[in-house]
Each structure stands twice: as C-alpha cells, then as structure tokens.
Amino acid sequence: MLKAERYRHFVEYFSKQQPNPVTELHYNNPFQLLIAVILSAQCTDKRINQVTPALFERFPAPEDLAASSPEEVFTYIRSVSYPNNKAKHLVGMGKMLVEVFNSQVPSDIDDLQKMPGVGRKTANVIASVVFDAPAIAVDTHVFRVSNRIGLTTNARTPLAVEQQLTEYLPQDILGVAHHWLILHGRYICVARSPKCEICPLTWFCKYYERNNTEAALLRAEAAKIKKAKEAKKKKALNTISKELKKRSVDKDI
Ligand code: SF4
C-alpha cells in the first residue's frame, strides 16, 4: 500500500470516529495549559489533573509563580515525575512570562521554546491547541503509533516524525491528528503489546501486515511444532531416567 493511501485511510477513519478530539489535561486558559503540559513530560495526564487544581488556585497568574520559589511549588507537585526540576522550570517560566512576554503566553514556537521546561513538543502543543497553528507535537505515543501504522518511514527522532507527518497531513488537521495518535497510542496501540485484536486500523497498518503475513504465521506455527517436539523429547528422557533409577534401586535390594 502506498504511503499516501495509508494517510488517506487514517484521516478518513479518525475524521468520522473522532471529529473533535481534545487533550485530556484539564485547564481553563493558556497559562494553565502551559503549566499542565510542562508537568506532563514523562508523567500521565491523570496524575497531572490530580495536582493542578490546587496549583492553579495558589498560582492563578504568571506573577504569582514568578514571586514564588521552587521549594514552594515543589510542595504542590511532589507526586509528579521529576518534581524538583519541574518546580524550577515553572518558577523560571513564570518569571520569563512576566519579564519578557508581558505576562502573556506567546504564540510563536521559537518564543515558547525560550522558556524553561518548554521544548519543541510543548511549544507545538501550545501553538496548536491555543493558537490553532499548523503544528504537530510528537510525544512518545505519536512517535510509536505513526511508525507502526506506517505513516512514517525510518523516522528515528521526534523531529523526523514531525517533518514526515507535516509533509503528508493537510495543515488544518495537524492539531487533531496529534490527539488521534495520542489517544490511539494510550488506549489501543499501547507500547508493549499493541491490542491489534481490537484495533480498527489493521487493514492498513504496516506493523500488523508485517506480523500477520502468511510467512509470519508459518514461522509461528513452525516454532510451536518445534517447542512441542522438544517438550515430548524431554518427557521421554525423564521417563527413561526414572526407569533406570528404579531398576538400580531394585537391584540393590
Ligand atoms: S493494528 Fe496493532 S500495531 Fe497497528 S495501529 Fe492497530 S494496535 Fe497498533
């Protein structure tokens, strides 16, 4: 199947099934989303949603974060991953918003990346979710699922995945495609054992095709037969060894 066809099937399927996907992070304004996305690195959205209500209440504006200390912020986020670093990042981010960006979250991806704790992925999420920019953030789910389906080829870095997705996907759906891939990766195409048996994308997924061709099935069958033969041989040897032991005992008696 040609790559362009895979993209067409991917877009058609998700446009029908999930026309308006949204982030699972809870927030009420761009500043809160920025905080939540910074915190979500290497952590689950569920965990972040547990800590942000108290955090947002204590730090409703960039000025509040800027005037705080990493030690204080830490007490609100101690249960997320890398709380020490993230506390420092949040205070630094608050300061930069106040001092450089007039307390407004910038829309430019380069400006966003100047802030502590904001890498390309976070910047793309903010640009696309808040400002409707044609950007796609590549996290671990987007990276894995794109490769498995075959939307990307030999893309070894998040930037390479971003570039290939941007090349093939229409600009106006880059933002929603990010959510499609994340949600699919979180609930079906999970990292260790993708749930292909319940996945509706098998008919155009490259990973599925590779692992379910006739040759792959024959290989699996041959391995099963070999294992069964080895088990039978082991059992026969055990029986012989037990019999020999028994005879030697009988002889001694
Ligand atoms: S068929 Fe399997 S590998 Fe392909 S997208 Fe679905 S779950 Fe992932």
TrEMBL record:
GO terms for molecular function: endonuclease activity. It comes from the Bacteria. Its cofactor is [4Fe-4S] cluster. Residues 39-187 form the HhH-GPD domain. Its EC number is 4.2.99.18. Binds 1 [4Fe-4S] cluster. CDD domains: ENDO3c (cd00056). [4Fe-4S] cluster binds at C189, C196, C199, C205. Keywords: 4Fe-4S, DNA damage, DNA repair, DNA-binding, Endonuclease, Glycosidase, Hydrolase, Iron, Iron-sulfur, Lyase, Metal-binding, Nuclease. NCBIfam families: nth. DNA repair enzyme that has both DNA N-glycosylase activity and AP-lyase activity. The DNA N-glycosylase activity releases various damaged pyrimidines from DNA by cleaving the N-glycosidic bond, leaving an AP (apurinic/apyrimidinic) site. The AP-lyase activity cleaves the phosphodiester bond 3' to the AP site by a beta-elimination, leaving a 3'-terminal unsaturated sugar and a product with a terminal 5'-phosphate. Belongs to the Nth/MutY family. This is Endonuclease III.
